[in-house]
Amino acid sequence: MNQRTPSCRLKMGNSYAGQLKSTRFEEVLHSSIEASLRSNSLVPRPVFSQLYLEAEQQLSALEGSSRIDNEEEEEEGEGGLEPSCPPNPYQTHLPPEGCCTVDGFCQAGKDLRLVSISNEPIDVPAGFLLVGAKAPGLPDHLLVCAVDKRFLPDDSGHNALLGFSGNCVGCGKKGFCYFTEFSNHINLKLTTQPKKQKHLKYYLVRNAQGALTKGPLICWKGSEFRGRPTTAGLCSSSLFPPLDISGPLAAFSGDPTPGTSPSIPTGAQPAGPASGHPPLTIATSPAVFNGKDSPKHQQLVKNKLLAVTRPSALGILSNSGPPKKRHKGWSPESPSATEGGYPQGGRSRAKYENAVMSCVPQASLAGPASVTFPVVASGEPVSVPDNLLKICKAKPVIFKGHGNFPYLCGNLNDVVVSPLLHTCYQSSQSLSRLHEQYGAPTPQPISEEMQLLLTVYYLVQLAADQVPLMEDLEQIFLRSWRESYLMEIRQYQQAAPQPFPPTPSAVAPVSSAQLPWLAGLAASSCNDSVHVIECAYSLAEGLSEMFRLLIEGKLAKTNYVVIICACRNSAIDSCIAVTGKHQARILSESLLSPAEYQKEVTYELVTGRVDSLGAFFSTLCPEGDIDILLDKFHQESQGHISSSLTAASVTKSASLDVGGAPACTSYSLEPPHIRPFQLAVAQKLLSHVCSIADSSTQNLDLGSFEKVDFLICIPPSEVTYQQMLFHVWHSGVLLELGLEKECVSKQQVEQHVLKLDANAQTKFKSFLQNSFQNPHTLFILIHDHAHWDLVSSAVHNLCSQSGPSAGWVDRLLNCREVKEAPNIVTLHVTSFPYALQTQHTLISPYNEIHWPASHSDGMDLYPESKKYFGLSEFIESTLSGHSLPLLRYDSSFEAMVTALGKRFPHLHSAVIRTFVLVQHYAAAMMAVSGLSQMKSYTSVETLEITQNLLNAPKQCPCGHGLMVLLRVPCSPLAALAYERLAHVRARLALEQHFEIILGNPSSGLTVGKHFVKQLKMWQNIEDAEWRPQTYLELEGLPCILIFSGMDPHGESLPRSLRYCDLRLINSSCLVRTALEQELGLAAYFVSSEGSPEKGPRSEGVESDAEKLSGTDNEDEELVTEGCPSEKRSPVKRERSCSHDSASSGLSSKASGSALGDETSAQPGGPWQGERAWSPQPCGPSEEGRAPGDKQRLRASQGPPSGVSRHSPGPAPQPDSGLKTSQRDVQVQTTSSSQLSFLGSSSSSAAPAASTPAPQAPRCSMAKACRQPPVVFLPKLVYDMVTATDSGGLPKATSLLPSHSVMWASSFRPPLSKTMTSTEQSLYYRQWTVPRPSHMDYGSRAEGRVDGFHPRRLLLSGPPQIGKTGAYLQFLSILSRMLVRLTEVDVYDEEEININLQEEPDWRYLQLGDPWPDLELFKKLPFDYIIHDPKYEDASLICSHHQSVKVEDRGAPRRPEDLYVRRHTARMRLSKYAAYNTYHHCEQCRQYLGFHPCYQLYESTLHAFAFSYSMLGEEVQLHFIIPKSKEHHFVFSQTGGQLESMRLPLVTDKSQEYIKSPTFTPTTGRHEHGLFNLYHAMDGASHLHVLVVKEYEMPVYKKYWPNHIMLVLPSVFNSAGVGAAHFLIKELSYHNLELERTRQEELGIKPQDIWPFIVISDDSCVMWNVVDVDGGGERSREFSWSERNVSLKYIMQHIEAAPNITHYALIGMRKWSSKTGSREVHEPFSRCHVHDFIILNVDLTQNVQYNQNRFLCDDVDFNLRVHSAGLLLCRFNRFSVMKKQIVVGGHRSFHITSKAPDCPAAVAPAQYVCAPDSKHALLAAPAQLLLEKFLQQHSRRFFPLSLQNRGHPVLSVDCYLNLGPQISVCYVSSRPHSLNISCSDFRFSGLLLYLCDSFVGASFLKKFHFLKGATLCVICQDRNSLRQTVVRLELEDQWQFRLRDEFQTANAKEDRPLFFLTGRHI
Prior knowledge:
By secondary structure, the protein is of the alpha/beta class. Strands 34, 35, 38, 39, 40, 41, 42, 43, 44, 45, 46 and 47 form a twelve-stranded mixed beta sheet that branches. Strands 32-52-51-53-54-56-55-49 form an eight-stranded mixed beta sheet. The chain is elongated and about 145 Å long.
């Protein structure tokens, strides 16, 4: 290796092989250099070190005056090629004898230290500055020097001249022309090559006292613009202003790192170029980068490599200072400067390899370099040669790799330097968290050598037309690391683990010495595609060598140059230069941000650099300039051509003006309607909003909102704005939300749509103020097109890629007011949500709503007639087996662009592409108009588009045509295209045939009057002032829409869009969002029967066969001037037949024929068919052709399987017989005459009205509904979209998701094809981070879940699928739901059995009494009849007041309909309503437990025991008492035991609280029970106790932590409501006794203790009062009104009643809308009370609820209370509303079989069985089975009672529901009880239910029974049954049989009930 070093030195670097011949020559050269350096010229004459070298004179002579400063000096102190080379010490010239050598003094002995001479006067010549130099021997001192300021950099670090000129301020010696000489004089004593950049550190300035002090750092960071400093400065300042400056200007510190130079002794030169150059940190201001700004934020369009470990960069150090002097210490006194062991020669090694054509083209490696890049610019400067771009035809792109990168100087405009590869390497070195989960030793990253080697392998295998993609390289690194690491894991698992053993990798590690050889070997056979240059010891050598080879033209076939320097100890330096013209152009342009791209294009247009391109086009036409040809055509043929061209249209317009004008049946504007999938999405949105409200975070209180308002924020596009106004107006959402009452005006709609521009702030402030003033309105802030403008408001002014409206989204939607407003929900809506799915996003993953698939939950959301055609469907159309693909590229266009790109390398490709495409359209229009010679100057695709554009209106009776979308992102280019095409159209007299529309986001549409008139006629618009304002309103208009703007802003396109020409989208679209956004323009809903996949055979296009087969002459037809056919990868060659529509056999045929010479007139049709070779989007279906035509078409197209699908593409005619022989027929022939078509003659054009043939299928609109548009893409984008990655996904999905984010790590798994939208979101949330310019950048720390905003949602769905309609529908159903939340379904049933009431003997006629008069009330008879409608199916209770008829009751409902068909009414909740757990407003927060004094859920458990003889044991209940409610109870002072519940006094008159404790028994309704009585009680203090079963206690406690709970004993877990009522009453009486005892000690009488409690159902929701307008108390004129009041009002009114303690039960009416005057006429009734009762536990001490009952226990208790002689009072003027709750309550009891194989449902007839039978036993309480059975099947026991209401069943001491067909008569056996007179009754049956000792034989003998009446005795067991029969002497009058004994179908352990039936004798 050492032997090769001399030869290497000979070839590269400044060798001393050519020595200077004489001292005189030295002096002459030296004088020349000095004169040049001191020149006052703005452009100093360049002096090159090559002048000293004979070896380089040949190159200099070759270039002549164009000197190429491309050679680099070797770095002093750098060793040889190998790390083992001995270091070469820096050769310092010995100082003259006798001079001073003391540090800090000059050789003349004068002190130079700043501290010594700071106050001394110093003579500073004009043009000189005082600077401070650092001496290694005096690290704490500065040495004062005077230096010519021309050799120092300016404030920006630029424009320092090469060389040096300085004076010694000590001794006064002047004229030091070399810094080496000067450093010797001032005794710097350097061990490295003296460099002014390294040692001149600070400017020196005078302070206020006149003392010299250290000033600012000298900014040695800029590049030297040798030769053109002014031009470079102009370029960087005016054309590309600084970007994203987020910090102050930072200067580079050149201080040596500790221990670098001072620690190295003289003679021991450290090896490596970095020894004298410590790492330089990147400046935070942009450095000049190729004459442009640093690519800090330049778009990462093709790579996704961005480091997350560092924040964003703001500058790339492309060139870090002026080049060092080249003399290596040589001076005129030292002619022998080469002594010291420098090697005398060297050579570089280059290997070549042919690129393998195996990969589809990739996207480029370029992207925004927004990363901090710690570049160490070291070593010698490299001069970029002049005219590099002119010679190479492209700007080389140099990617910095490992290690140090040298300075660049000279012609910096012609190179591009990027840090992306370096960042990729760095990122790959940091292992991801994903791979740290293994239990093996610390994983080792890929070595630098292996990284570089893998990069070389990757470059070698790229095809010639491919561009390297950073994602590919990252995946290569990942796979390589994974394979090696898995092997380490295996070795680790097999061997005994040692502490961090050195694990060998799978492949032996590559050493730095081996790397150049291996890299060269890898590139050895690629035929110059990859060129490897090995450097001796500095990258500068390799770069200089590369520039030299480029200038010499030796790298013409080379695409990539890999430069390796592997001698820097164990580290390597590397860089990769992209020199291929195709790759370099794409990469260099993709590094530009969108703003830079626009500025570059504008600059080229403004400065006239495009003139040469226009001149070139003018030379193409054989007859001269195209404009001259146009003018000539216009003058010669104007009248003839226009008349013939417009013949059809004139005929049409004339016929349309006549009354019976033909109408086109294909044109129909689809009325707005909601599709099923839009409704499904709206419901998902609603569900997410509800889930936010239901969460425990209290972030959204839906119950507090009464209405919905909204504001839709959209990008600043006038078309989008008008489009949104149209959608909102047509949706009717304003009327539905109640925001507008009647007709909605446009001004009212505009209040709800906001353009995010500079004028948005005023309207948004109004929105915020409105939300603040209306806290009960829920405001939905909709951010549509949410992926647009994510720039942080903090940096939007500095971000050059942002327009004037940038940052408004962050400034408005993310402002503090929006975030904190509790009534604003933000909904982001976008088709491309990726930039909102980062690690720092504010949107919770649970708040994302993704568009459903076509089938969701088994339901087809898409109608059969519609199919969405999106990106995946377009890609699918390109696969084999389909007809013509809908996604295509134009190879002839691409070939011409490539050729012109080589001819005009200084022009941006967007300019070239635009000029070429406009030229193609112009030529196509001219060719169609009859200038057949112009067909050679366009492409087949453009001809197809133009042909169909002009022909489509002719095939429709109304002139409907198609739209061509021409996407020109750059606005200046769009304006240029518009002007040019409009000019050509005007010269060709085509103004009436199609419109050209310039679509600019900042302005509205401009459409000609003629076409506006047509649109108004088609759309039946009579408004004279109407103008189309949206693209949707251009439906059917033949037009070219030139769509400009860097990004689409959500504009929708009409169905008549036929071609989507995206050939001009630039390379910055190669991020996923931008790419999918462009392709989303063509997204479409098509009729399923007409889609390409399902199209019938009859829809085939004639061109299918030839398109599929014409691939033979693909290459030969596509060669454009100077552009040989590019080699393609095999995959592309295989698919080119269907994808590249210009590469078919049609190319040659079309190129030799006129455009308009082929016609295929339709038989019987009046309108000309299209040219035979053109597509026919408006043409007829196959049914319209002659039979012979069909047969020939099928024959020519080959097997149906290959072409059976409908094709919308171009239509070259496959049958030569269909072509005419005349190639030069002008267009008038086509339009006015008909040619023979398969022997059938066609008549000339005739009015459509006279033609019997149907016209509808021929209109372009007919096919538009069945076919999506055809999309043309650039080749690069096409390859990216159609290629697939290893996971089977399109390659485009692996691109960086958005410009504003970057990858968190290179080591990330690829996206999977099976990922759902949710999984994809989680992927991006894990692997992407926002850039510093992103509005989410500073939102939260990574991983903090609480950083999500609780009221922010994200709706994502494919473009043009209907998201706007979905969220407008969401607003509607949200409004309905809020109204629904403020409404409840309450039972609305009129009272039953009203007709059965006879007029009583006494009425309560004091109609105005607020309370009942006790004496009057006692005279009222008790009404036994049940009037509550819930008991409609209950047995009627007979009394002596009734004369019952069978027909008096209506037909009973079926049992299963009892709760299903009950009538309800929807009522608006009042402010006095009771609420369930879903309500949580601010007012009742404390009530629900959010009390500042108490911790949530803080409560205590207390036992409360009392004895009760009927239960036979002591009853122990448990109270759960929250701390906040303990004041309602009394506790013992010693142990804190619960003693009693406090009761007030009867005499208390306070209005602040409710005296009666409220008990609410509940089961199964922890969520839906109405236990929140705060509003119902109007905030009054009250005691509310929930009575729950033991097993339900935890869930009730969870939902109601601040409620007192009474927990029933476990034995009652399966009991019914009777048990709860029983225990409530007994507990309350026991507590009354305790309170009487306790308060008696305080001197209070026992009768003064309040004895009432409230027992309320858990469904009581509101209470009402009737206000009577008395027209006289006894007047028949009775008017009344009902209003809602609080429960507090009702309770305090009742509690204030006089003699209240004399009433046992008080209740109120159940509300009904059907309530009439009769019900409320009498204020009080003595009757049954239900649902909400006020119970006097003192009076009812001896009357108990039946604890066994499940049903009708309140009726049973009412009868017991009345029979005990107590008063029941119903306040008829009060009513309670009961909410319909469909869960819980009695429904929670399910009767099932205990046998596992039996069905779940059991018929009621099986609830009883014979004793000891094998009947299936049931899992249900015996009492429930009994009651259910009697309700359904009591007719089995009482057959005589059926429908026999005059002879009811006698029921003793209980009321059991025997069903609606059986009436009962209730009697009590208790002494002194009140019973009806039964002497008149003959009963049809007797029911004895668990009768006690009060029932005796004598008691029963008082009653009379019919003969054959039946008896039913029910007892707890069989023994009791027999004893009861004997005790009551039943056998005397009743006959029993053994088979008449039954039991409930319970097991013995469940204690069944037994009953015996008998027959009356």
